[in-house]
Amino acid sequence: MSAPGGLEDTPQLLDELIQKCFKAKEKAYNPYSKFRVGAALLTEGGQIFTGCNVENASYGLCICAERTAICKAVSEGYRSFKAIAVSSDMTEKFISPCGNCRQFMIEFGGDYEVFLTKGDGSYQRHLVRDLLPHSFESGDLIEFQQKQQ
Ligand SMILES: [Zn+2]
Prior knowledge:
The protein is α+β, with helices and mostly antiparallel strands and 149 residues long.
């Protein structure tokens, strides 16, 4: 389903984002899980940052592709996002961000698009907010802190 103003209105750009998330998967550092994930994040200004999963012998330190891409963008000064696309090697199922990544994504807004792909390049479109209902967000903290003053 297409949404006005969404990335589906510019199919070439959406195609580029999806291709880049598949390409990013090739860089995955995944010696433990062997599970490759790639992400491509489109900023409001049109820049694309990619990321892959980066695993660690201390499993709790593993970082997902989505968070890698977001950290790369934020560390370069970008905080407004239009869309993120995510890929994996799953062929039967669309890749879906873990709970950590959903929380991480919503820190930068609930209204940007998330394209979850599967091996054949097909995708499902969501908004960040749809993937994390009843979320705890920065606005909740700010509201709380203001009441304390
Ligand atoms: Zn994750």
